[in-house]
Design goal:
3 domains, D-Maltodextrin-Binding Protein, domain 2, 7-stranded mixed beta sheet, Arc Repressor Mutant, subunit A, 298 residues
Length: 298
């Protein structure tokens, strides 16, 4: 990396993290080294980029005017680094993904992209949508597969819908009465309810679904893993409402039963979250192209 590009990246780190110390901790420099790079950049541009106040810094007017241009320059440089002369994507990308997305449609997309671009190295990190949004904004992840946010996103972030999952009820097949062919969603009121964490974006969708159904249920447990909920239902611990994950063969599962929720217009929209300007656009475009080629999925 040339010294000038390194300095521009240091500038963006200070913008993102707010202090020389926090920026340095993320990019492997001491606060003094960060300060020297910023001073050199200010001298080269003949303007003040930051207003210093104790340990904190804020963007000066001239610095604020230059953020977007510097982001464009860094993104253009990063894209050059990752051009493979033998064609195809190469290099390393860091992607966050809901574990349920890896069980769902995103796993197929990732496998297809890896087969098409064998020189591409993808590091996957599991977690929740809300924490991924913070990490993408900070530049700790290049992109993340997340549920659509119920709140407005930071304007620096771009969310592109990829696919949609309906909400379904699930109950243990072995529980008394569960073989009834006319079983309705009201059977959920007879079982301990295994609820997805209310604080998460998916948890809020579950609550919306219960409101649509007019159900008030006694929570048996609250968990933050759809996969764990499914397994506990299989073992007879209770019933639940979850998204219909694409790669789960619900019809062949001998240990649980799916209950359709007619008239419930609640869906989990899963999409790709990225910065509006970043250096891994070729990869994120490949992900979006894969899903767009499949057409609408619900």
């Amino acid at each position: 990396m040339s010294s000038s590009i390194r300095t521009l990246k240091t500038f963006l780190a200070v913008v993102r993290y707010g202090t020389f110390a926090a920026a340095g901790a993320k990019i492997g420099l001491t606060p003094a080294a960060v300060g020297l790079q910023i001073k050199a950049l200010e001298e080269a541009l003949n303007c003040q980029l930051f207003v210093r106040s104790g340990r904190s810094v804020t963007l000066a007017p001239q610095g604020r005017l230059r953020v977007a241009k510097i982001e464009d320059i860094v993104a253009a440089y990063d894209s050059l680094v990752h051009i493979d002369e033998r064609a195809g994507l190469s290099g390393h990308v860091s992607v966050g993904a809901l574990v349920s997305a890896l069980m769902g449609a995103f796993s197929d997309a990732l496998q297809a992209i890896k087969e098409k671009h064998p020189r591409l190295n993808v590091s996957l990190y599991a977690g929740q949508s809300r924490e991924f949004a913070v990490k993408v904004l900070r530049g700790e992840l290049d992109a993340a597969v997340v549920t659509q946010s119920p709140e407005p996103l930071n304007p620096e972030l771009l969310w592109t819908p990829l696919y949609t999952e309906s909400m379904i009820g699930i109950v243990p097949r072995a529980a008394p009465g569960m073989t009834d062919p006319d079983l309705s969603y009201r059977v959920l009121a007879t079982l301990p309810f295994l609820r997805f964490d209310k604080r998460t974006w998916t948890g809020q969708l579950v609550q919306q679904t219960l409101l649509h159904l007019g159900l008030t249920l006694d929570d048996g447990m609250e968990l933050n893993s759809i996969e764990t909920i499914i397994e506990l239902v299989r073992q007879g611990f209770g019933g639940s409402i979850v998204p219909r994950l694409a790669n789960v063969d619900w019809s062949r599962d001998g240990h649980l039963r799916v209950i359709e929720l007619p008239g419930v217009a609640v869906f989990r929209h899963v999409g790709l979250l990225e910065l509006r300007r970043h250096g891994r656009g070729n990869f994120t475009n490949e992900v979006k192209t894969y899903f767009f080629s499949l057409g609408p999925r619900a």
